[in-house]
């Protein structure tokens, strides 16, 4: 199982290239960003690209999450339970860093920031209330992949990877047998339907 942890770790890293966040108001997209975009201050606002120098800011938490994922991948070239502990730690750390780093983009955080900046008028509050923050496939894929990588590392660390692999093979074999049986039943049903149609006398 040790070598297979590279798959979810690699997926988590690649997920930063996918869309992570969309901010919209009245179904009109205001801001779009990938994971790398959020980390390095490269977002698309109202169809125009914005960089860190244009007012978009670097997100240190997400940059650290990227480093944790990359470090976890590098550790996978080692073996042993100590390496598994480190891989588990980097996965958990990356999840925590992503959660902290993306909190600033939540609707509650945006409202809190607006209040600090003095945007307390009724019009400002009404406009902010209409804003919707959507977390896209890249964000969820990164988080899920890191959780899977952490679970796999924990199995290796606890010495239960052999048992888990055997159970997974058993479930896969059982699922394959069920799929074959279902396909066979579907084929028999189709043959019976065809035979019955051929046996029916033609209508005058």
Detailed description of the structure:
This protein is α+β, with helices and mostly antiparallel strands and 204 residues long. The protein has eight helices and five strands, in the order H-E-E-H-E-E-H-H-H-H-E-H-H. The protein has helices spanning 6-14, 35-40, 60-75, 81-103, 107-116, 122-129, 137-158, 161-199; strands at residues 19-25, 28-34, 43-45, 48-50, 131-135. A five-stranded antiparallel β-sheet has the order 4-3-2-1-5. Strand 3 and strand 4 form a beta hairpin. It is flat, with a radius of gyration of 25 Å. The mean pLDDT is 78.
Task: Write the SSE topology.
Layout lengths: L5 H9 L4 E7 L2 E7 H6 L2 E3 L2 E3 L9 H16 L5 H23 L3 H10 L5 H8 L1 E5 L1 H22 L2 H39 L5
Antiparallel strand pairs: 1-2, 1-5, 2-3, 3-4
Helix pairs in contact: 1-3, 1-7, 3-4, 4-7
Query: What structural category characterises the helix and strand content?
Result: alpha+beta
In N-to-C order, the SSE pattern is HEEHEEHHHHEHH
Q: State which percent range the strand residues make up.
A: 5-15%
Kindly state the percentage of residues in helix.
Answer: 55-70%
The count of β-strands is 5
Low-confidence stretches: none
Strand order of the largest sheet: 4-3-2-1-5
Q: Helical element count?
A: 8
CA radius of gyration is 25 Å
Shape: flat
Q: pLDDT average, as an integer?
A: 78
Q: What can be said about the biggest beta sheet?
A: 5 strands, antiparallel
Distance between the termini: 67 Å
């Amino acid at each position: 199982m040790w070598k297979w942890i590279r798959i979810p770790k690699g997926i988590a890293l690649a997920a930063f290239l996918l869309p992570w966040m969309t901010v919209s108001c009245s179904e009109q997209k205001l801001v779009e960003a990938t994971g790398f975009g959020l980390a390095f201050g490269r977002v698309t606002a109202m169809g125009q690209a914005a960089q860190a120098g244009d007012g978009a800011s670097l997100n240190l938490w997400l940059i650290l999450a990227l480093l944790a994922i990359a470090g976890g991948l590098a550790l996978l070239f080692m073996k042993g339970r100590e390496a598994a502990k480190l891989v588990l730690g980097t996965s958990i750390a990356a999840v925590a860093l992503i959660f902290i780093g993306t909190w600033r983009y939540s609707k509650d955080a945006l409202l809190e920031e607006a209040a600090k900046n003095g945007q307390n008028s009724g019009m400002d509050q009404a406009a902010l209330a209409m804003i919707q923050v959507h977390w896209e496939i890249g964000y969820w894929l990164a988080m899920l992949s890191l959780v899977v990588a952490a679970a796999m590392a924990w199995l290796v660390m606890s010495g239960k990877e052999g048992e888990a692999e055997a159970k997974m093979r058993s479930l896969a074999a059982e699922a394959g047998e069920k799929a074959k049986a279902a396909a066979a039943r579907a084929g028999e049903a189709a043959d019976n339907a065809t035979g019955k149609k051929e046996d029916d006398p033609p209508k005058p």
